[in-house]
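Re: [ENG-882] Designed sequences occasionally contain unexpected residues at chain ends

Forwarding the minimal case from QA. Structure tokens:
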């Protein structure tokens, strides 16, 4: 591939051409993925905190 699939800029490096995404767009994608993973983890922790005090029918 000669152009970035995200922004359309011309790709220069061999690695970028192989994956089809330039280094700037790839770093942005990775940043978004890290932020989503962090938000997901925080959401799960929040739900676990809420459930800690609830009574479960399986408790002895």
């Amino acid at each position: 591939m000669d152009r970035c699939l995200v922004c359309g800029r011309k790709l220069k490096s061999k690695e970028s051409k192989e994956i089809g995404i330039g280094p700037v767009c790839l770093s942005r994608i990775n940043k978004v993925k890290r932020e989503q993973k962090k938000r997901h983890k925080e959401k799960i922790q929040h739900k676990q905190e809420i459930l800690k005090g609830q009574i479960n029918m399986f408790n002895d």
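QA comment: On inspection the terminal residues look reasonable. Residues 14-52 form one domain. Proposing we downgrade this to a documentation issue.
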